[in-house]
Amino acid sequence: MKALSLALAAAIAAMLMVPMAAAQSGWPTKPIRVVVPFAPGGVTDSVARILTSRMQGILGQPMLIENRPGAGGAIATEFVAKSAPDGYTLLMGSAAPQTLLQFIQKVGYDGLKDFVPITTANTNPLVLMVHPSLPVQNVRELIALAKSRPGKLNFAGAGGLTQFSGEIFKYMAGIDIVYVPYKGGAPATAAAAAGDCEITFANYSDALAHLKAGRLRALGITGARRFPQSPEVPTIAEAGVPGYVVDSWNGLFAPAGTPADIVQRIAGAAQQATKDPATRKRMDDIGAEPVGDSPEHFRAFVQAEMQKWSAFVKQTGIKIQQ
User: Fold this and answer.
1) CB-based contact 90:30 (threshold 8 Å)
2) How far apart are CA 6 and CA 21, in angstroms?
3) I want to staple 150 with a disulfide (CB 3.0 to 4.6 A). Which of 102, 159, 176, 276 is the partner?
4) Assign residue 210 a region: left if phi > 0, alpha if psi is -120 to 50, beta otherwise?
5) Which of the four CATH numbers 3.30.450.20, 3.30.360.10, 3.30.310.180, 3.40.190.10 does domain 126-239 have?
6) What are the pLDDT digits (tens) for 6-25?
């Protein structure tokens, strides 16, 4: 009789838990919005479209891309930070607005506290390139030329890491080159290819067509290692500026407070998508290396990136006007 009572109590408890479990397991019941902090056509936008085109089939609901460019990515990032934590608004975050901008300008969010990191979507290097008319063949020659012409050489960028990569290069190399802003990575790279600016730091995807056509010359990779698609191009650190490393990446984030089971479902779908050969091929074609790590690993990575940039900005006193 006692055993029967215990069984009955357990059954009642299980029944009481059903509505909550059902509500959670019912997600998603409508389309999911993925906000991109930059204009269409760049690497962040392209990765978002490639990844979600596979993820939506796994999750069973459309994933709609919404571009909200402006303020170096801060506008979109703040928008998602203040969105409902229900799993229906996500951010395809990027390195600069997520971990760097809050240390060099006023933003309305904390890149870690106001978000739940879900997964790293990809890494992609930036490339230091020059117009072929510039009489330099490597990083050391570029530094020597810049020192002989202080304030006379320009570098094109689109804010964020494309600008900060150049500012760090200036600081560490002890040179004076002038930043020229453009509204996107592709226009900035095109300006350098046309000779309007002598130098640019650009995402590999923006650079690829110009490099193949000979309109730009690659001198160095900003990351810690050479890029598999262009192994002949050295890192900037090994080419003449020891210790120089600027990593570019994208990752999915949800607003803080998003239920853990929803975060895990999104992460699982992203991980499955990044393992798909067709998805990997599409990312490789634009110079993006797919990752697909766990929320725990991604959170630790973002935290380390924020600590790195905070320390660097305090140490150097670098101030950047966006």
Assistant:
1) no
2) 22
3) 176
4) alpha
5) 3.40.190.10
6) 444 444 444 444 333 334 45
Which residues make Cβ contacts (< 8 Å) with residue 115, sequence separation at least 6? 80, 81, 91, 93, 98, 109, 253, 254, 255, 256
> pLDDT tens digit string along 69-78?
888 899 999 9
Distance CA 112, CA 299 (A): 8
d(CA 95, CA 101): 9
3-state secondary structure at position 118: strand
Q: The whole model's pTM is what?
A: 0.83
**Domain ranges, ordered by start, for the chain:** 30-123+248-316, 126-239
Residue 321 binned pLDDT confidence (cut-offs 50, 70, 90) = low
Look at domain 30-123+248-316 and name its CATH class: alpha beta
**What CA–CA distances, in Å, run from 28 to 57, 69, 120, 257, 260?**
12, 27, 21, 17, 14
List pLDDT tens digits, range 19-63: 333 344 599 999 999 999 988 888 899 999 999 999 999 999 999
Closest alpha carbon to 251 in 267, 237, 239, 228: 267
Between 248 and 316, whose confidence is greater?
Answer: 248
Q: How many CB atoms lie within 10 A of CB 189?
A: 31
pLDDT number for residue 312: 86
Element containing residue 289 per DSSP (H, E):
strand 289-290
> d(Cα 308, Cα 164) in Å, to the nearest integer?
14
The mean pLDDT of 232-237, rounded to a whole number, is 96
Bridge partner list, 117:
253
104's tokens: 């060099």
